[in-house]
Write a sequence for this structure.
């Protein structure tokens, strides 16, 4: 018994000692906060590594034919980085949007990477990683603890709803505007909390301007600044509101520009079909959609189309959305503790996403996953705050299930990572992307049109025509589908069927200049120059500025030996748009055919500058130099042609001729042999004649 008592006393002493040791350990940590603070940077580094691994798959994806072509592949604006070219970028709309800084970024990427999607995707990933770091510092400046900041950064970094902004090259505008938006908020917080020097306020305004130049969605920033003031108990007088005046001026200015650009591009035409009452239900649906997808990001899609009305009514569940919104508002109102955090996060979300809630309907999509990239930060904050609060509760009932909470949290994060990883694969190219859209919404004709164009971009014409047929079955009133199908039928050699499609379009819309142009091209292919000229003349009477049509008519004039008329059309095309490479290329070819080799070199050089990946332009440049006995210069041009297209047998054949003129017989024969192996008959004759 005595021994037992001694033993118990010893245990108690041990327990007391252990308790004291813990207090001492906590005291040492308090005295050395730097060591503790550094841990959050390790967590941040871990998030960045996880994000890089998770999103590395985007670098093997291709361009899509959904805005990537309009912003990059076919965008002549980004091919000129001269001062004049940059001025053109800042004074032009692209796809009904004014995003000049984003377009300038595309121009820089094109200069560095060419049309290699790997480089563009890599830039997107880097921008996203930078934004993760900025989010970390933003919430740190707001005064939140590490346990809240880290989950916010993690959710921001890996959430599947953000894949669209990162995997879609055209949406670099999301990443860029968010970067400058957060940088503006950080500068503002530094100004009001750490350093009252005006430079920080000026820097914040500059970042805001850069954000607006990247994407017009940034117009909400002044509201977010006022929200920050409220959260930090800084709204004490009119002064705090008046200091936002420069922000509001910029916001209103760019808001007007955005409305004008969207209106000019007919992106707002849908407003005629959406009543004021419908907009209320559609807006409420959008809010609930984003809240639901925050928790369960399932059935994601590149396009969430407007619902189909039955009679004059939306689907019934749309009418339930205002009730759900009111219920959420009531719950927030009845919340007794931490209401300020809930309001701050909710208002951040609603304020920053407000301009895309389709209060003023734009386009044919009711919601967009990309719109959540920045606004979700407010909701991530609420989730992270309550998660941290839950695991820190000291009640025994919570302690018992804490392990389950950790396990479920880990399982949910794994679910998010797997969903993101799978979603990245969907963005591999336009075909996989819109095949997925159709799986989610099989009765929407627009998706079939885009999928058909995706197949056409890869020269898969039978599949393209099949999907155009399906689109017409679903909606035979959309004239552009016949236009697209006619073009693909023309490219696949079904010329008479293509004419039928354009006859249908012209019958429905006799003022459709493009239909006349395309039908004129088909008549040209059939050798029917009379009907071809009639159609092209009609097209130009409807649209005298149609450069493509002028180029086509010029070629007919050339075939008819009407050289002066051919030159006149090309001169006019260039006067309309001095950045149109085809017009320079065609005029250069015409100059070359008429023996004007100096003029040909000038035109073809401009064409090559505007379209540096066009192998045929370099072939013509090389041929012009060859005719001027500049054999070394010709070889350099043919080298460029082969670099742009290793299968251009004409380049090999002509380079062989240039080398033979320099008595480089072995090298000349090697070039002719390569061209002959590609089926070039003239090179085969040169081999037999000179290389035996």
């Amino acid at each position: 018994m005595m021994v037992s008592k001694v033993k118990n006393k010893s245990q108690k002493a041990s327990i007391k000692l252990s308790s004291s040791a813990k207090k001492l350990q906590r005291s040492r940590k308090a005295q050395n906060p730097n060591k503790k603070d550094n841990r959050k940077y390790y967590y941040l580094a871990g998030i960045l590594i996880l994000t890089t691994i998770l999103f590395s798959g985007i670098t093997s994806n291709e361009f899509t034919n959904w805005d990537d072509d309009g912003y990059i592949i076919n965008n002549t604006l980004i091919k000129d980085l001269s001062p004049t070219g940059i001025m053109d970028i800042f004074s032009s709309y692209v796809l009904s949007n004014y995003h000049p800084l984003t377009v300038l970024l595309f121009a820089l990427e094109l200069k560095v990477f060419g049309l290699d999607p790997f480089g563009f995707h890599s830039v997107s990933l880097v921008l996203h990683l930078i934004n993760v770091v900025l989010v970390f510092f933003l919430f740190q400046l707001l005064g939140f603890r590490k346990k809240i900041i880290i989950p916010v950064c993690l959710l921001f970094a890996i959430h599947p709803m953000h894949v669209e902004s990162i995997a879609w090259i055209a949406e670099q505008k999301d990443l860029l505007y968010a970067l400058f938006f957060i940088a503006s908020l950080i500068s503002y917080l530094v100004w009001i909390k750490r350093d009252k020097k005006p430079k920080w306020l000026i820097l914040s305004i500059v970042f805001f301007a850069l954000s607006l130049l990247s994407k017009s969605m940034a117009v909400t920033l002044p509201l977010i600044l006022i929200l920050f003031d409220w959260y930090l108990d800084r709204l004490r007088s009119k002064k705090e509101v008046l200091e936002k005046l420069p922000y509001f001026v910029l916001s209103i200015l760019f808001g007007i520009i955005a409305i004008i650009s969207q209106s000019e591009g007919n992106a707002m035409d849908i407003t005629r079909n959406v009543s004021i009452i419908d907009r209320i239900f559609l807006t409420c649906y959008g809010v609930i959609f984003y809240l639901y997808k925050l928790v369960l990001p399932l059935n994601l899609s590149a396009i969430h189309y407007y619902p189909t009305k039955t009679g004059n009514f939306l689907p019934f569940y749309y009418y339930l959305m205002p009730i759900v919104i009111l219920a959420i508002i009531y719950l927030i109102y009845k919340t007794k503790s931490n209401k300020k955090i809930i309001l701050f996060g909710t208002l951040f979300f609603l304020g920053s996403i407000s301009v895309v809630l389709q209060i003023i309907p734009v386009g044919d999509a009711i919601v967009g996953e990309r719109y959540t990239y920045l606004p979700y930060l407010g909701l991530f904050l609420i989730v992270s705050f309550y998660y941290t609060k839950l695991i820190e509760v000291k009640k025994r009932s919570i302690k018992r299930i804490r392990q389950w909470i950790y396990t479920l949290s880990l399982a949910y994060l794994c679910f998010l990572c797997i969903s993101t990883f799978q979603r990245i694969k969907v963005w591999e190219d336009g075909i996989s992307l819109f095949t997925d859209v159709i799986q989610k919404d099989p009765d929407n004709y627009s998706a079939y049109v885009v999928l058909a164009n995706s197949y056409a971009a890869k020269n898969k014409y039978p599949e393209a025509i099949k999907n155009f047929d399906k689109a017409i079955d679903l909606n035979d009133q959309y004239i552009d589908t016949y236009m697209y199908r006619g073009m693909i039928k023309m490219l696949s050699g079904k010329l008479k069927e293509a004419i039928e499609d354009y006859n249908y379009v012209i019958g429905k819309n006799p003022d459709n200049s493009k239909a006349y142009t395309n039908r004129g091209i088909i008549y040209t292919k059939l050798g029917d120059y009379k009907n071809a000229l009639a159609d092209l003349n009609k097209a130009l009477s409807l649209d005298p500025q149609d450069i493509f049509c002028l180029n086509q008519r010029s070629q007919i004039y050339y075939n008819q030996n009407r050289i002066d008329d051919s030159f006149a059309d090309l001169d006019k095309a260039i006067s309309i748009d001095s950045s149109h490479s085809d017009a320079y290329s065609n005029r250069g070819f015409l100059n070359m055919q008429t023996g004007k080799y100096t003029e040909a070199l000038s035109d073809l050089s401009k064409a090559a500058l505007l379209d540096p990946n066009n192998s045929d332009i370099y072939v013509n440049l090389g041929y012009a130099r060859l005719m001027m006995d500049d054999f070394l210069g010709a070889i350099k041009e043919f080298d460029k042609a082969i670099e742009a297209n290793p299968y251009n047998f004409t380049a090999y054949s002509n380079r062989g001729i240039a080398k033979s003129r320099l008595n480089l017989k072995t090298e000349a024969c090697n070039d002719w042999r390569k061209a002959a192996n590609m089926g070039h008959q003239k090179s085969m004759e040169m081999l037999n004649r000179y290389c035996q």
